[in-house]
Prior knowledge:
2 copies of one chain form a homodimer.
Chain A: E1 2-3, H1 20-28, H2 31-42, H3 47-54, H4 58-71, E2 74-79, E3 87-92, H5 94-97, H6 100-113, E4 121-125, E5 133-137, E6 149-153
Parallel strand pairs in A: 1-6
Antiparallel strand pairs in A: 2-3
Chain A binds a DNA duplex through α4.
Amino acid sequence: MTFLGPLADRSKWQIGDxxxxxxxxxxxxxxxxxxxxxxxxxxxxxxxxFVERVGITExxxxxRLKQFVAAGILDRRPYREPGKRTRHEYVLTRMGRDLxxxxxxxxxxxxxxxxxxxxxxxxxxxxxGGPVTIRPRGESGKDLDLDDLAIVPNDAWTPPxxxxxxxxxxxSDTTP
Amino acid sequence: MTFLGPLADRSKWQIGDxxxxxxxxxxxxxxxxxxxxxxxxxxxxxxxxFVERVGITExxxxxRLKQFVAAGILDRRPYREPGKRTRHEYVLTRMGRDLxxxxxxxxxxxxxxxxxxxxxxxxxxxxxGGPVTIRPRGESGKDLDLDDLAIVPNDAWTPPxxxxxxxxxxxSDTTP
DNA sequence: CGCCTGGCTATGAGATTGCATAGCCAGACC
DNA sequence: GGTCTGGCTATGCAATCTCATAGCCAGGCG
Lengths: 176, 176
């Protein structure tokens, strides 16, 4: 991985709290969170199913699900079976579905290196039945490896404000 | 996501401890672990650089690095600068490099949903400068979404033995 | 109208993670 | 051979995560 432009000298800057990976880990960084997410991807929507299939306690499931709903990863919507009272189910939002690459990447890696013969489950293309892989990919469609990548600053990005902007009395010192 | 064959009835089986994602999370599931991994992907190899660039304490860095070496993700190799004593650097093994998809997937998701305008850094193709994406992909090269995937049992896989097999005295109840 | 049940919440204990601070030690340098 | 320094370790405390257990409550049912 190469750093280009102003990033080239790594002693001159630090990513600090602005790292997207760090922010992502704050939301989905616990074991229960990822496993819950796996289940959601598998199609699970109901509280009890989450608890049973993930193998966590109800308290933990409730906490994580609530947190996911607050984060916008899951949508909590009422449902009702005939003769039963109204309950809620948890379905993936767009934001949640877009975590699929992360979930699959972990699974792919675990299958390859942490299991005797590739793990108990295989993910396949529903149409063809062929294998599914997940790798970084360039615009042209070519697979890229670590050495093929470069990092450039994103000029559109602005550091998040964490205090109310002060009335300016000189050049602002917004996280240089 | 659809389950095929014997997996179709989800009330009949549980993945339990055999989940590759769970095993992966046991190794790289903490915040410091992922951030350390990010730095390793960025090309960092030395103890002090890890500590400074990730923003964790030396104790935590030492613990995680040791754990990574034990897991086979990093290789600890001696190096020596002229006039300095021998030290060790930590470089990604094949196993470690193959975590790149997981790291990039998290970054991609964080950039998209947790940042004001796409996060501070952009990953690009070193050759073309074009954007890099990471998505599940079928054999044909087609991008696949959640609904395009299916899960089938992996017949090659055998559950890891954790106890000596008992002499059978009836139908075994190994994780129904 | 009171009981029962499925779905969720509350509480407390133990393990893990992380920070801050201080300490150790191999070996380069004098 | 003593001292200094960069690289790593040890200790103590706070926060978080998870489990186990118990409790609550809406509303269907008798």
